[in-house]
Amino acid sequence: MNLDFSDEQKQLRDQVRRFLSEKCTSAHVRAILEGPESYDKALYKGLADLGLLGAAIPEEYGGSGLTHLELCVIAEELGRCLAPVPVSSSIYLTAECLLHAGSAKQKEAWLPRLASGEVVGTFASSEGQGRTTPATIAAKVEGGRISGTKWPVVDGDAADIAVVTARDEKGGISLYLVDLAADGVHRETLQSIDPTRGQARLTFESAPAELLGTRGDGWHIASQVIDRAAILMAFEQLGGADRALEMARDYALERMAFGRPIGSFQAIKHILADMYVSATLARSNCYYGAWALVSGAGELPVAAATARVSSTTAFQHCAKNNIQVHGGMGFTWAFDCHLFYRRSNMLAVSLGSLSTWETNLIERMSAGNAWSAA
Predict the structure, then answer these.
(1) Taking the chain, what is the end-to-end CA distance rounded to the nearest angstrom?
(2) How many CA atoms lie within 13 A of 109 on its CB side?
(3) Which residues contact 108 (CB under 8 A, 6 or more apart)?
């Protein structure tokens, strides 16, 4: 089985990398980190104009009509440059929820606007710290109006619409579309380790909510969408891990100590080798996840958890050790090491923490083994 990308997909990767090398330098990332804007609107518009936001959205809904493999390629490049844009919230989650559960009217109303970047979406499920389960969801919808609080919500400070998990009148979990500009919606920006990807607390006080999908089927839909988004986010983490490794390698070859490059010292070699191993393992699992994503294979839940665990571990490991290779300079604001460290920790808790995905992986593999034994 060949799990590599095609020549056309590699060409897409090169084109996206060239675009981002000009439009998303560390100076652009720092401008969002230190400035008042919640995301880089010019970059986001550029991605939309190139058709990248709509890569996996059908042409009939304003997308480019490509596949999720192309979206994986794009995600990796966004991760390499730490792009300060809400692609994961708006495209991996909101658009996917609409594609999976939306009515024809809902798709026609929102997917073209998400693909064009006119509208930013987010996914609101968590209601505080800890693992999110159906039992932890307290937000309620009665008579088409939602009440409750969701936090932390990634990109919730910038989003125009939200897909929200809430209890319906019968006590089941359903998905709802909420216009965040409507009456009864209040948002508070939360402090986080990576301000280039904003976090918010969304409070709903009898705000209008539109059912998305079948009533009572919300948790099942959300679980499927999160698994798919986890693979795409794993590619973002893979891109960040690879770039952090490259930064460490380049510095080790340039920095001189005792008349020789520090990369010639065994301790530095070991650090770089360990970083390479973790990034390579993550790449293998991400490619497996990409195959499961586009083929609709039954292994997708296991592949998603595997990719998520390995890529989270790799990005955090590479970001931390990039700082170590840079030594004292790596801890300063002037160097870009902290940007990767921030993003690695931010992504590590998006869509659930590392321990949550480790638990998911164990449970899913155990269930598969039990079925095989039966």
Answers:
(1) 28
(2) 12
(3) 61
The domain limits of the chain are 7-115, 121-216, 219-373
List C-alpha distances in Å: 323 to 165, 271, 312, 331, 336: 39, 11, 17, 6, 9
What is the DSSP-derived secondary structure letter of residue 352? S
Which among 48, 369, 366, 93 is positioned nearest to 236, based on CA atoms? Answer: 93
Cβ(86)–Cβ(39) under 8 Å? yes
Contacts of 187 by beta carbon, 8 Å cutoff, 6+ apart: 156, 157, 180, 200, 201, 202, 203
Q: In CATH, which superfamily holds the domain spanning 219-373?
A: Butyryl-CoA Dehydrogenase, subunit A, domain 3 (1.20.140.10)
Residue 221 three-state SS: helix
- What's the CA angle centered on 283, arms 356 and 154, to 5 degrees? 45
pLDDT tens across 309-362, in order?
999 999 999 999 999 999 999 999 999 999 999 999 999 999 999 999 999 999
